[in-house]
Amino acid sequence: MVNSGTDVIITWAAPTIKNTAEADALIEYILSIETNVTGTYTNVSIAAGVTTKTYTMADLKTLLGYTSAQSGQFIKAKVTAKNTYGTGLLESDINALSAIIQGIPAAYPGTITATVEND
Description:
By secondary structure, this protein is mainly beta. It contains two helices and seven strands; from the N terminus they run ββαβββαββ.
């Protein structure tokens, strides 16, 4: 997971498929992203075959309940595969030290002074 400008890009590797039955069985991925309450996750369904999800910072804040006051906190996510037999018991490791919540001030609260010098 990385910050790219004001976007957060989450990527994962598809599971190793051993045979065509397994390939046909994959239905979706469950992307779980930690909310502003530690240990609580919001689940998002991602179509099979897709291994990247991009969010704008504004969308993540709305989805997860973060505010600009929480800027600098790491965004944590994990992925589980789901097939016709159920949801995988093993999920990806939670990422660490990656993308962060970013806040952009609506207006600069101070005074801006510019000096123009003539040569």
